[in-house]
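Lab notes, practical 5.
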Amino acid sequence: MFLGIDTSNYRTSVCLMDADGSAWFDRRVLFPVPQGGLGARQSEAVFFHVRTLGALFEELRMTVPRADIRAIAVSTRPRPAKGSYMPVFEVGRAFARSLGSVLGVPVYETTHQEGHIAACEKFAERVPFWVFHLSGGTSELLDVAPRPGGYAVAVCGGTRDVTVGQLIDRIGVALGCPFPAGPCVEALARASVDGRESGPQKDPGERTAVRAPVRAEGPYVHLSGTESALLRAIDDGADPTEVARAAERAVAKAIEKVVRAAASAGGVRPLYLVGGVAANAYIRDRLEKRLGPLLPLRFAAPEEAGDNACGVARIARERWRLKAMA
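Output from the prediction step:
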């Protein structure tokens, strides 16, 4: 068995995976944000992880009592870049080191971003590819080269200011959704006039589409103006369902602009879309229609798109295998 631990800003995740890649234990506990809140302070998240990890390990012991853990991997920073650091990841590092010492097994350090990539890509590609990491903390188009037990990553596009996840969360909370707002925004958008394209016909009444601009600058986009336009629409009394669909449409448009600019500058590569926002059905469908003819497009499964430790566990398995083969 191989154990993965991830302590991101909003979710505590633990995954136990066998040698064939099947998860025997996969738990993710979301930080409880009060209604109207837009996240948590690092100190609050650190305390939450300390309490939650202990409970998850106890649940793991009861669920898989005879687990033969050979290696542990833990995400210890947000991304594989110099200076990348967040205090929340120190909690996972401390637990992993302690558990590794007790069990006498190797502990491999990786990053939250590489965990997202491994959860989707599963070490299937042996040639460079692109990854668009779409979450509340990150909106980056990554040029990824596989390396033993991980990835070499370079940023080649993305958002300059507001991330796509922040846009969805901020607009969703302004519409009365709980944080994180992705599922609520998606549900609202399905009731929009535009939503009838993929569902039963709805009476549009007096509702009109809400428009929000997306400003591009090469393979980068700016979403602060998009956010302002959507918040103004809410203040002006626009239908919440139309605002929600406009936010989804703006995110899809932003992703498309970045990918097309990057493709025109350096050629196309297979593209994986990972992170919580990649689970949105409307965004996936729009991108499949508009980018699918341009390049091979692969989405993380909805259950693997958001923060989880399964990719981290997969990295533990891969690095242990490499060491065993050496």
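Observations recorded by the TA: DSSP finds ten helices and twelve strands in the chain. The chain has two domains: 2-125+305-325, 159-303.
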